[in-house]
Amino acid sequence: MADGSTNDMITQRSSKLEQAIRVDLAEGRLAVDRRLPPERELAERYRTTRITLREALSHLEMDGLIYRENRRGWFVSDRRLVYNPLWRTDFQRMTREQNRQASTELIEAVSAVAPDDICALLEQPSGTEFWRIRRRRRVDDRLVVFVEHHLSKTVFADILEQDLTGSLTNLYREKYALEYGDVSFEINPIALTGMPAAELHCSNGTFGLQIVRVNRDQAGRILDCDAEYWRHDAVSIRIDTRDGTP
Amino acid sequence: MADGSTNDMITQRSSKLEQAIRVDLAEGRLAVDRRLPPERELAERYRTTRITLREALSHLEMDGLIYRENRRGWFVSDRRLVYNPLWRTDFQRMTREQNRQASTELIEAVSAVAPDDICALLEQPSGTEFWRIRRRRRVDDRLVVFVEHHLSKTVFADILEQDLTGSLTNLYREKYALEYGDVSFEINPIALTGMPAAELHCSNGTFGLQIVRVNRDQAGRILDCDAEYWRHDAVSIRIDTRDGTP
DNA sequence: TCACGCATCTGGTCTATACCAATGAGGTGA
DNA sequence: TCACCTCATTGGTATAGACCAGATGCGTGA
């Protein structure tokens, strides 16, 4: 109350170990080439046990300072990518504008019956078949997002013949003369499991952001739906109504 | 691959303990009045140690099935509140429309120098004083969000004399004849610490969603800025460009 | 040259136990 | 009646040690 201010007092609840690691991280003493030493080594360095150490690392992970790759190790997080789900500018361009480098990998592109919830979103009866495109993207070489698209098989009859590692937005415009219109989306903080977790090389249960979006063309017809699964520390959502929705 | 499908196989990575708790939760065997038994009792019931049990509970917490109140215990999460940060309908109305019941508590309403980042957002020089209003809200009696507002002292000269447990939106319109115009906001997944964590009764480092918003009137003048800190499992963000921004 | 297999490294899960610290209920005394 | 104090309860943090399982790199053999 006197000088330490109520706020600071409340803030100082995290363990000493966690604070120590924070300082070492901030001053660059901990990570070699953004990679932290093995847990056993860290535990020894901080004179504690792996359990306790992992507890502290988990906190820093939730705080977005570090992240882990499943059974591979811990790494220092880079700054967040600023992302506006209303803009359908392609990923490459978006990252370039933030002086970062992106890449996309195609995981699969097949015809498949969509789950009921996806069919409902796309306003089609349960059991409808769609093109299902699964991809994952890196920013500055780090895997940050897994994306699953569902597209109408009739509207995009020959899409599997196209290059699917690039921008679908551009494909829509250039090959199908379709422009985006309205969008709706939903953002949920969730635990990453199953395929998203596996493809992003993160441990099961790692925290993430799910963004499910339904895109329409200018006539209001539903074009596709995509579910994105982001590593939570890699993204910051920003929306400004003054920007409009190009 | 045959019938178990690749997806399921990848999904089954979580521990058996975690699965057991999931089942018991789903079938209502675990919680009495939404409150889980003490950790020690649970550890005994599942024939494991508290460490292991807490690991599993943390996973379920990240998945949004349960949450904890600091040193108070574990509780079963209710369904998420659907929230559109572009709509400035008041909280009471929003919750009522979802058949839920909301309440707001005023924590403080004072004049204070805003931090530099807030001053920048409000396009005022560092060190500017604003009204600082801190509140927290409950949905169905559960604390779900802590909100910190910063308002211009000149535009809202006598706002401290108003009832600050209600809707600021309504106050703006009724007492100051101000209508909202453009909005910009930023959503960040972060760890809750300090005052937000304390006021929400959650342990330091609990996962949350931060939503920082800058509101303007119809002339484009900045009205105020508010930073919301949500319990991550209590909210789902939804935006639809067809709704417009009333 | 390249595919395969094995050894090793690393995180993931688990047992057993102890003490610290905030909460909250109940009792005490003004 | 009500403020205060005490203490049992409950989570929060920590130690010490073990084995499991995926990821990786290296070396072998075709």
Secondary structure elements and their pairing?
The structure is a homodimer of 246-residue chains.
Chain A: H1 6-11, H2 16-26, H3 39-45, H4 50-62, E1 66-69, E2 73-76, E3 81-83, H5 91-97, E4 102-113, H6 116-121, E5 129-139, E6 142-152, H7 168-176, E7 180-192, H8 194-199, E8 206-217, E9 222-231, E10 235-240
Parallel strand pairs in A: 3-10
Antiparallel strand pairs in A: 1-2, 4-5, 5-6, 6-9, 7-8, 8-9
Helix pairs in contact in A: 2-4, 3-4
The first copy, chain A, binds a DNA duplex (30 and 30 nucleotides) through residues 15, 17, 38-40, 48-52, 54-55, 68-74, 203-204.
User: Structural class per helix/strand content of chain A?
Assistant: alpha+beta
Question: Using DSSP, what is the number of strands of chain A?
Answer: 10
Rg of chain A (C-alpha, Å)? 21 Å
Major sheet summary line of chain A: 6 strands, antiparallel
- Helical run tally of chain A: 8
| Percentage of β-strand residues of chain A | 25-35%
Oligomer: homodimer
Mean pLDDT across the residues of chain A is 88
Molecular shape of chain A: elongated
Helical amount of chain A: 25-40%
| Low-confidence parts of chain A | 1-13
What's the N-to-C terminus distance of chain A?
51 Å
| Strand adjacency order, main sheet of chain A | 4-5-6-9-8-7
Order of helices and strands of chain A: HHHHEEEHEHEEHEHEEE
**Greatest contact between two chains:** A-B, 45 and 46 residues
